Structures
1.
Amino acid sequence: MQASATFTARTASRLRQIGRAVVDGVLPPRCLSCGDIVDEPDALCGLCWGGITFFAPPWCVLCGLPFPHPIGEDALCGNCASERPAWDQARAVLRYDKRSRSLVLGLKHGDHTHVARAFGLWMHRAGNEVLTGADLLVPVPLHWTRLFRRRYNQAALLAHAIRAAGGPDVAADWLVRRRRTPVQGHLGPAARERNVCGAFAMRPRCSVVGKRVVIVDDVMTTGATVEECARVLRRAGAASVGVLTLARALRTGT
Ligand SMILES: [Zn+2]
Ligand SMILES: [Zn+2]
């Protein structure tokens, strides 16, 4: 009786595997953004690809802000020149605007693992300078109440996908959000800074002393969140702090 139950369970599991393989083989790959059929998995269709701005040099050596023309290898943008950020270097894959919004927000709905895997590959490639020599990826944490409601942290998903693409280890819960901050969507730069001030802390017994860490998030808007995280990691003794995000919003006109 027991042998036959085991056999049935095994057969069912094998059939499920075969079923999944058949479905994977039969269903055509879909565009990560609009869902149209594309030639390869984890890709964008020509139309979506053409609408998205992928960052490329020449850019600010610190924050990766693209320049319209080359102005020297170590050139800084106006923001970085006037006030040095708490992190050492930041890179993003693409510009966050109305054309990329649905792609970026796809991480929060639908097939998370599928889009995260593609984003991890892109971030690993675009973040080469930041990731070289890095010891740890530190995702920007969600407050536990938000994590409970959403069930997963998209920054942690991205960090694990970067790790899977060949990046360093993930320190998933080392940085914690100790108070719940209001959603920042409608807030201006100064209000965002106030909103996240003192919001993060290191988890006890997690040491980044002497470590080269890279903060991972989905979108960098004003930079207030990663700035605050970088301050905490620096105070905790990190040797260097990089920032790697999937998308970055630029002020209009830049
Ligand atoms: Zn598309
Ligand atoms: Zn800059």
2.
Amino acid sequence: MADETTPVAVAPAPTPAPAKPAEKAKVVAPAYRDYPNIPALKIDSMADSNPYVAAAVHNESVGFPGTLVEGWEQKAVAKMGELLGKYRSLRVYMDACVHCGACTDKCHYFIGTGDPKNMPVARQDLMRSVYRRYYTLPGKLFPKLVGARDMTKDVLDDWFRYYNQCSECRRCSVFCPYGIDTAEVTMAAKEIMHSVGLGHKYVNEIIGKVHKIGNNLGLPGPALENTLEGLEEDVLEDTGAAVKYPLDQKGAEVLLVTPSADFFAEPHVDSLIGYGKVFHAAGISWTLSSKASEAGNFGMFIGNYEQMKKIAMRVREAALELGVKRIVVGECGHAWRVAYAFWNTLTGIGAGADDPFAIQLQKQLDPNYKQPSHICEVTWDLIQAGRLKFNKEANDHRIITFHDSCNVARGSRMGDYAGGQFDIPRNIIRAVANHYVDMSEATTREKTFCCGGGGGLLTDELLDLRVKGALPRMEALNRIVQDNGVNFMATICAICKAQFTKVLPYYGFKMSMVGGVHQLVSTAIVLDNEQ
Ligand code: SF4
Ligand code: SF4
């Protein structure tokens, strides 16, 4: 069943720009669709798309078996049983699907690839067929009759392939009449695979770096300090204002935890510059932390609660050591989801955990503020209170649209009402710029399409999948580029920024047309010396 509001592209897909890397010769953007049609089925077209398998050293560094363990079949089935007992929702999802088909054409990876195994229902069935075999009576007695399958190496290989073609974006769940969340099934499958020694190299390597060095990029404390000093000099030169980017400042009011990409990558760093300007203009003391120098939490991508907790704990330890009153999260989609939905029980930031350190932290944090807060909530509150001034004309060279990031849109909220996560970033953009246009309603807010690189898939060996998965977002973007002359797509997610920077050229757009909301704030904000 087609989604009748899927946007119609107004221009033909551009010929991919000629470029040097060999990868570009192989990876080609799919053509824009003329109508909101269901893609023609291309059976097994993505059967060769696999992420690299983690080496033993990477698996072991995060506590998983190095390689596929002996008797992995029974162990995987037992792990599934454990998860079915632990997460009631998983069992409901295994039982509740009526194969109505409402979700089939809602996944960007199916739209972009046509591979039927990328239909959300088919992705779930990879696990459901094994569940039926071992955890239902008909599956035990008449496996063939009910589509039940043994846990075999072929099945495991299919899991590794196709659960690593799901960005855990949750779009399909919006359209499922039973609210079945494929992302949760994917996370469970990844947890099972990791538990028997089949790990994802990119994700495990990054988690290892966070434990060893403190952030996804492996940026050590001294390098961080140098970078921040450099930023202070740049901002002073640009604006004449002595904006500070403090590190490990004890007694600061705010601890800002932001994705490590903000420290050096373009366009991410422009948002970090913007956060600093906001705190400076509002007279709020703040600090970054070398211990918690990463907001991202890849533990969520592999569904592993222990890793999520271990990664999140760095934030609590930093907050206690620095004695801050508020914890604010920078522009990162999945980090905000983890902070908003899990930090309370993982760490006691907010409320939830009840160990002595959690209680100490709850007493330390200022109850007048939401703990944690998103940087957009902070900025919007200050704008409403009249504490920030802007020269909106400074953004007049931009015609701006906003891409809702999945984990913010469907995994969390902002402000104090449902939908605040959609309105607040848009309100900020309208407060700092004169030209704003929304993309098609079928592709924004809770129906937003994933950028194509979420869920731990932002790795070069999956570039073909990432380019194809970006198709629906690129179609919607292309439409307003053609109709309204949009030349800037703002987003509040480090993964979206990195993914779009990479895939926009495949669709004929400039990589520089993506950036952060606080990049726009940074352009327009009036600092005291400039008034
Ligand atoms: S969660 Fe997102 S990526 Fe995964 S199947 Fe659903 S729509 Fe596709
Ligand atoms: S929409 Fe829900 S019930 Fe229907 S096929 Fe998809 S997952 Fe199953």
3.
Amino acid sequence: MAMNRIQFQPGLSLPAFLRRYGTESACERALQQARWPQDFVCPACAGTRHSRFEHRGRPMWQCSSSSCRKQSSLRAGTVFDNTKLPLTTWLLALYLLSQSKTNLSALELMRHLGVCYRTAWRMKHKLMQTMSERDAGRRLGGLVQIDDAYLGGERNGGKAGRGSENKRPFVIGVSTNEAGHPRHAVMEPVPGFTKAALAEWAGRRLEPQCDVYSDGLGAFRAVVDLGHAHTVIQSSGRAATEQANSRWVNIVLSNLKRSLDGAYHAFAFCKYAHRYLAEAAWRFNRRFELEALVPRLLVAAARCLPWSERRLRNVPVYVS
Ligand SMILES: [Zn+2]
């Protein structure tokens, strides 16, 4: 069965991780490779001529362009900026968040890393932000199953959660191949299940001319206006999960809810829903590549701009 290929992957064992990322200098080399795979590139002028020196035991680069002369550290301008934590602690967080089968809460991260809760919260949110930015441009193509759902509650009768801060509407899309196997997923909050909101979502998240399958929610007809074929799955409840064209979106959705329900406090979870959903989608989209996830997340983190705690906490609140 297809799922076994994922579940029985060897992944990256802890001893193998420690051999690769067990010292500060090994982590510095890994971050340098992730950030500048060929050679140093000046963040200010994109020049490559440079000199190197050490400042307080950490490697520094100075741009040799006479009009620039900018000094750069390995971390400045990345998601690791403005933190005194050793890179070994950061890499361990990358390891735990990427290898865990389900979502790992900030509280668990705090215990594993031996840092205070606030530090663990910042690390977790910075890395979820990294995952979110990495998948921000992903579009689903071909056969796409989509569904509407609420975080913090089910949609019963269409009124549940409306205007409530601890319930967030979101759209989940799963693309499948011709054999009916899932390829990629996108999960993202929407301001509400209106035709305008769904059209905006589909405009960003679907490639042209998809075959879209959904339940009977009227707003999903917005995809037709964008040139997609749209099939409404008529059955409801249990029978729907058995239909091939809605099977995977239902499986991914129920796995998501099970994994999130156990890990997070509802209110905080809903406020930052876009990041938690992006984390789950990032992991799903890379489910066949468990062993390569640490270096891949490190590359994404090196490209993600710094996020202050204030900016992390300042998220738009949707009113549905
Ligand atoms: Zn420069």
